[in-house]
Specification:
The chain has 377 residues and is an alpha+beta fold. 33% of the residues lie in helices and 23% in strands.
């Protein structure tokens, strides 16, 4: 059965879609982006096939434990493909942070799920000359692309074959990415505000909801607050924020899970005002920051406790440059749809014979907005 193969089979990554010519002095971003996009596309296709086979063999998972078990299998396979693909590249990548730490710790605390969840970390690359087991030497490489990754954003949605899951790699070549607080710290979530660059310097976590809405109305030349979409994760810790924006007449859209896609939508939509606010996952917030840095978008972040309050351990609001430094042209986020992403108008992979069409998206400082492609895998 495939759900057994997902954990045990050694992943076989396809040949790189671009010629392998090691850069002499500096990693070429166009080359790196093609490699990262290929990796996310392969993860998306592999996950899509696995979801179909698991559901056919065992049915759609019903209980929390079943959903977590399927999710663990998908995440494990995706992480294996991710690590293999990164290490096969002809340049060095350093994974600064990867989604999965929270799930692993929660499994340890609750006794539900898998405590052996695999999480990518450290440096990868030059696989033709550096064995995977010896890759720690790559930490000393003078040139590295620093990454924050979610092999499957929206794992629960993927497990249930529902819209909203995708593989994403984000990072910077020339700068640094802030260290995300560990799971045993008081910082359990990231409170952030994300919007298009038109609202940079105009909306802020330090503002009241009314101040943010008034600034948005003025910038877009509109008078009706209901024309402003406000995406926020529907959680008890966010209820006060939800009430504040609802009371002002905005179009509040409560998300059941997965607030990264709405953040990317906010950053890449110019003609319609969108705010992505509230507390959510820490890696997802930093991934959004990489995209915001590339596009010059509006972004602020504050680490908060489990109930959404500021933490003395990590005080204050961080601006975009504090979260991701370096040249915006060197920052990016690239992703591939697994089950479809409605907010970004992306469909799930489609099979054509023994091949698949997969939709990918890339955000860089070199191209305004979101650049979409359909790859054949």
């Amino acid at each position: 059965m495939l759900h057994e193969v997902l954990v045990e089979q050694v992943p076989v990554f396809p040949a790189r879609p671009v010629e392998s010519t090691p850069p002499k002095d500096k990693i070429e971003m166009d080359h790196a982006l093609k490699v990262y996009s290929s990796i996310t596309a392969q993860i998306a296709v592999d996950a899509r096939v696995a979801i179909s086979d698991i559901h056919e063999a065992s049915g759609i998972p019903q209980t929390k434990a079943q959903i977590l078990e399927v999710g663990h299998k998908l995440d494990t396979r995706a992480t294996e493909l991710l690590e293999f693909g990164l290490h096969e590249a002809d340049f060095v990548s350093e994974v600064v942070d990867c989604e999965g730490k929270k799930e692993k710790r929660k499994a340890e605390e609750d006794g539900i799920g898998r405590t052996d969840l695999r999480v990518a970390e450290g440096a990868y690359g030059l696989g033709n000359s550096i064995p995977f087991s010896k890759r720690q030497v790559l930490q000393e490489a003078p040139e590295k692309v620093k990454l924050v990754i979610d092999p499957i954003e929206g794992t629960t949605n993927a497990s249930l074959n529902k819209d909203g899951s995708f593989a994403i790699i984000a990072g910077t070549r020339s700068g640094d990415i802030t260290k995300i607080p560990e799971e045993d710290s008081s910082a359990k979530y990231a409170d952030r505000i994300v919007a298009h660059k038109r609202l940079k310097g105009k909306v802020s976590l330090s503002n009241t909801a009314e101040q943010n809405i008034m600034a948005t109305l003025k910038e877009y030349g509109i008078t009706d607050p209901h024309e402003i979409d406000v995406y926020i994760l529907g959680r008890p810790r966010n209820q006060a924020i939800i009430y504040g924006y609802e009371s002002l007449g905005t179009n509040v859209i409560e998300i059941p899970r997965g607030d990264l896609a709405p953040a990317l939508k906010a950053l890449t939509t110019e003609d319609h005002p969108i705010l992505s606010i509230g507390s959510g996952g820490k890696p997802e917030a930093v991934i959004a920051a990489c995209a915001a840095k590339a596009l010059g978008g509006a972004f602020e972040l504050m680490w908060v406790t489990g109930d959404g309050n500021p933490t003395d351990e990590f005080p204050g609001i961080m601006d975009l440059d504090e979260v991701v430094s370096g040249d915006p042209f060197d920052c990016f986020a690239t992703f591939a749809s697994i089950t479809g992403v409605e907010e970004l108008d992306m469909d799930a992979p489609q099979s054509i014979g023994n091949r698949h069409l997969v939709q990918t998206g890339t955000i860089t400082g070199r191209v305004p907005g979101l650049e979409k492609q359909t790859l054949i895998i």
